[in-house]
């Protein structure tokens, strides 16, 4: 009987660990829905809170006829509540490594209790004096910038994974047709996207800023292509093609964020009755924010110092603390998008991330992404050259000493 119980117990433990792992993976989507609902709440408070949430006027820090709890102030308060919730989750799940730990059960379950924690986290900022909200807004700018860096790291990790997955090694005899196909499609789409940007955002020759931005983006795509194909780099076209698509997307997003009063904005080219297009683009923008945060949050291995450790069966499938801290930074990021990176920005209904500050943030992010990618390509070549020079220097030094 003892010999039989051993395998049975091990089998039951394996079943329990598999169930815990599934709950942990499903929990990511629940947190994503919470984040999505918070985005909708921030939009509702900003655009319709002053009319429909009249009870907030009786709160001392809001006041009757004041907008400290609505518009940009309301967005910051909702963002602070979301940040508090995910920071609490970060603190309570920090260091979780095994599926059988109590902190794993807290991360993957106890949803009624976590809903109460979320509700309290959202309510607290609406009773906090406005001076603390303004301070949080200044901090949120830095947090949103950190989130953009984390997103760039995640994108770079994804590009490296694609390159290793579908492009053959230089020493192998594999052809890598699928990788070559993706590379061709990526570059065709990149340059086609640049052509579309010229058509949509350069209606006349007076749009000098748009012409420069699009032309410089095309130059960056060509430079990345040339560097990746250099004989000393030999990276191939797939990684540079995907990065080219990414920076073309950032260029489009930057141009789309330009104030709509300019004569070079796309909206003025089309029909004036475009409320439906505004609503659709707004919904797509919110979904993009949620997807960017979710994809960055689940890619926890990109932010770990060591990725070569083998994962055991009872290990958690991803890092909970990194997951929650990314969502906390994402709360700051969506706040900046809703108020266009300006704390006292006059908001317009169904608008998101519109203004020159938003435009320049995306342009700088595009240039930074291209620069980091090019440096990632050439840095191994520079390091190898320095190492070779050091190796040549040592024998020469020995020869001089021996001759003496």
What's the end-to-end separation, in Å?
82 Å
Taking all Cα atoms into account, the compactness measure Rg is: 26 Å
Q: What percent strand?
A: under 5%
* Mean pLDDT, all residues: 81
SSE class: mainly alpha
How much helix is in the residues? over 70%
Give the topology string: H per helix, E per strand. HHHHHHHHHHH
Helix count from the secondary structure assignment? 11
Largest sheet, in brief, is: none
Family: Belongs to the TDE1 family.
InterPro entries: TDE1/TMS
Pfam family, one: Serinc
Keywords: Membrane, Transmembrane, Transmembrane helix
Mind explaining what this structure looks like?
- The protein has 404 residues and is mostly helical.
- It has one domain (2-403).
- It contains eleven helices and no strands.
- The chain has helices spanning 2-52, 71-93, 102-108, 111-123, 130-166, 177-201, 208-229, 238-256, 275-298, 320-338, 356-403.
- Helix 5 packs across helix 9 and helix 6 (177-201) packs antiparallel against helix 7.
- The radius of gyration is 26 Å and the shape is globular.
- Pfam families: Serinc.
- Its main location: membrane.
- Belongs to the TDE1 family.
- One of its GO terms (cellular component) is membrane.
How is this structure best summarized?
The chain has eleven helices and no strands.
Question: Topology of this protein?
Answer:
Blueprint: H1 2-52, H2 71-93, H3 102-108, H4 111-123, H5 130-166, H6 177-201, H7 208-229, H8 238-256, H9 275-298, H10 320-338, H11 356-403
Helix pairs in contact: 1-2, 1-3, 1-9, 1-10, 2-4, 2-5, 2-10, 5-6, 5-8, 5-9, 5-10, 6-7, 6-8, 7-8, 7-11, 8-11, 9-10
